Amino acid sequence: MSMEKKEKTGNPGESGKTAPQETQSPDSIREVVEAMGESHGTSRGRHPDGPPGGAPSDPGGSPSENPDTQPGGYPGQAPATDTTLFCDARPKVEKPYRGIIEKFLNWARAESLWVLGFGTGCGAIELRPLMTSRFDAYRFGVAGRATPRQSSVFVIGGYASVKTLKRIVRSYEQMQGPKFVLALGSCTINGGMYWDSYNTINRIDQYIPVDVYITGCMPRPEALLAGFMKLKELIKAGKGEKANEYAEHFDWYKANQKKVIPDWDMPDYNW
Q: Where are the beta strands (DSSP E) in the chain?
């Protein structure tokens, strides 16, 4: 009797209740994922352009080059020549509109200055109080943004080391035009107290164009606000065209960048 009752309760058609399903083990889930990857021509842990079967091109290489040693089958850093991941188009000069249309656009750009939240040096400390209630940069349309794609203003705060310059160039090129640069502090003009250092650059305008310089070591937040006001004047007057200058003299800027950055392991074009 007990056997019959057990069989009856285990049949969902008779009892009206769904029988509990067995949970799949991690091994079975992994087999399904690998089978799906093979059906699409790529498997987990293999780069689409890699050798067949998901095997690394250099089994005896370093751990960073071996996909099987990376967490989750990470294929490693993509080569700088991979045009599927990086754009290889040169920057182009964007001609301004004519008449009242360009004036209206320049007014809108000047009243919405979105600053990239990238503290390149010691001068970044002046950006923090700028957003507080005492100085209230928001009343001037100045706001911080987290990524280069969202930003229109890049503040180079203080000294810039060679290692940081590499990130400055990449961040500047990823910003959408029109874009503007404020050089904050004496170190961006002539190197300041680090003018003879082996690991810092003396003039930032040799590597990216600069719209406004703010002198001092270190300028107070009031001086930085004055720099923003000057930048707004230049933009409204139609003189904030340094991004086009970078496109016109791209080869000159790129040659200067490569002179001081020895480990140039990124594409020439970063947007």
A: 113-116, 142-145, 153-157, 180-184, 212-214
User: What are the residues whose beta carbons fall under 8 Å from the beta carbon of 129, sequence distance 6 or more?
Assistant: 135, 221
The separation between CA 155 and the C-alpha centre of its own chain, rounded to angstroms, equals 15
CB atoms < 10 A from the CB of 270, how many?
14
Helix intervals (H) in the chain: 2-9, 12-15, 26-39, 100-110, 127-130, 162-174, 187-190, 221-236, 242-248, 250-260
CA distance 218 to 12: 77
DSSP 53: G
C-alpha to C-alpha distance for 17 and 4, rounded to whole angstroms: 17
Chain segment 126-177, per-residue pLDDT in tens: 777 787 788 788 888 888 888 888 899 999 888 888 888 888 998 999 898 8
Identity (one letter) of the amino acid at 45? G
- pTM (two decimals): 0.67
Domains of the chain, start order: 30-77 (no CATH), 100-260 (3.40.50.12280)
Separation CA 245–CA 178 (nearest Å): 11
Structure letter (DSSP) for residue 142:
E
